[in-house]
Amino acid sequence: MEVKKEKIEFFQDKILEWYEENGRHFPWRNKSATNYEKIISEVLLQRTRAETVANFFPKFIKKYPSWKKLGEATKEELQETLKPTGLYKQRGTRLYKLAQEMKERKGRFPVKRDRVEEMPMMGQYNANAYELFILKKPSPLLDVNMARVLERFFGERKLADIRYDPYLQELSQEVVENPQSKEINWGILDFGSLVCEAKSPLCEKCLLSEQCIYFDKLSK
DNA sequence: CTCCAGGTAG
DNA sequence: CTACCCGGAG
């Protein structure tokens, strides 16, 4: 499925416009956020609502402000701390592994994307986030949220799993290919959470509806 | 009840 | 490729 360039530009413009007015604010989006904080936020955000993480994040950073401090925690201690966020056993075990790996690496996180993806807890999504936020390179935060927005507007994927769908992979990359890649990414996630909701999207107040496939189907 | 800024074992 | 993790918010 070939998507027209003009449609992508329309989408980018509208999302950026919407984001300026309605974008959400989170601790890990602050300019002052350290690389450690950025990486930890992505770990906590896995399969967990951003608002939930926003409540929890400051407490976690206060308790474990650095890789060094995190490396001193036991696996059980991390699991206990992570309980309010859900997925705490898995996440605790994996975060422990990541912290220990960082200890061995003397606190140095890998630089190249491929190496990042080899780290514990760092999958495709997190490697993209790393590229976007730390290497400052356009890269899509393609989660269920972004996938839903893109599919409704541009057309549905073929494969069940986002992570193996070449159509969504390529489309998302094109969409965030822009000098303001970070803002477009955040814009899409916020837009997906606040307007293009999973259950009942607010199509009446959506500034994308004139070119949206999902909306077009609705009005038939 | 469903859904959530995914990773990974099998 | 799927199935599973999990508490919490809506």
How is the secondary structure organized here?
Layout: H1 5-22, H2 35-45, H3 50-63, H4 67-72, H5 75-82, H6 88-104, H7 113-116, H8 124-133, H9 144-154, H10 166-176, H11 181-194, H12 213-218
This protein binds a DNA duplex (10 and 10 nucleotides) through residues 41-42, 44-53, 83-91, 94, 120-126, 129, 141-146, 159-164, 185, 189, 193, 198-199.
Function: Adenine glycosylase active on G-A mispairs. MutY also corrects error-prone DNA synthesis past GO lesions which are due to the oxidatively damaged form of guanine: 7,8-dihydro-8-oxoguanine (8-oxo-dGTP).
Family: Belongs to the Nth/MutY family.
Organism: Gracilimonas sediminicola
Order of H and E elements: HHHHHHHHHHHH
Q: How much is the radius of gyration in Å?
A: 18 Å
Biggest sheet descriptor: none
- Assign the CATH superfamily of the largest domain: Hypothetical protein, domain 2
Strand pairing plus helix content: what structural class? mainly alpha
CATH topology tier name of the largest domain = Endonuclease III, domain 1
> Count the strands?
0
Oligomer: single chain
Helix segment count?
A: 12
Q: End-to-end distance, in Å?
A: 22 Å
Percent helix: 55-70%
* The level-1 CATH class of the largest domain: Mainly Alpha
Strand portion: under 5%
CATH architecture grouping of the largest domain:
Orthogonal Bundle
Number of domains: 2
Q: What spatial form do the alpha-carbon principal axes imply?
A: elongated
Q: Mean of residue pLDDT?
A: 96
Low-confidence stretches: none
Function: Adenine glycosylase active on G-A mispairs. MutY also corrects error-prone DNA synthesis past GO lesions which are due to the oxidatively damaged form of guanine: 7,8-dihydro-8-oxoguanine (8-oxo-dGTP).
GO molecular function, one term: purine-specific mismatch base pair DNA N-glycosylase activity
Organism: Gracilimonas sediminicola
Pfam families: HhH-GPD
